[in-house]
Write a structure and sequence with these properties.
The chain is mainly α. Helices cover 76% and strands 0% of the residues. The protein contains five helices and no strands. 23% of the residues are buried.
Length: 127
């Protein structure tokens, strides 16, 4: 892979991390505020951030090579499907499913994204 592609992949992995971390911050804010996790505003915010993670998987953004290399630690196809559902069929989404993704799956996703980020940083240092 060329350096330009490593740089592009690194950028989009960082964007994914930023949105995943924002999900964690949103959950922490809800705990401190007089809001309920089932509040429509909370669910909409979480869905939007999860959808934006999936937005980075476009072939023009994150390379297919990187997605194939890390297919064992990142559920790329699940992320893509959620993005499509969140953006095209939002009215049929269940808030409890969104909350489950945010609380149970995003922390694991972040671990995988941090690993990819470290690996990409190593590759970029080698150029």
């Amino acid at each position: 892979m060329k350096m330009e592609q490593f740089q592009k992949d690194y950028l989009h992995i960082r964007v994914m991390i930023d949105f995943a971390e924002e999900i964690g911050r949103t959950l922490e804010k809800v705990k401190k505020l007089p809001l309920d996790f089932s509040d429509e505003m909370v669910i909409s915010s979480l869905a939007m951030h999860i959808g934006q993670i999936g937005e980075q998987l476009d072939r023009q953004k994150l390379s297919v090579e990187l997605q194939e290399e890390y297919a064992d630690i990142i559920p790329w196809s699940h992320i893509k499907r959620f993005r499509d559902k969140a953006y095209h069929h939002y009215s049929r989404m269940d808030g409890s499913d969104i909350l489950k993704i945010a609380t149970q799956e995003i922390p694991n996703l972040l671990d995988g994204l941090y690993k990819i980020k470290r690996d990409l940083e190593q590759h970029l240092r080698e150029f």
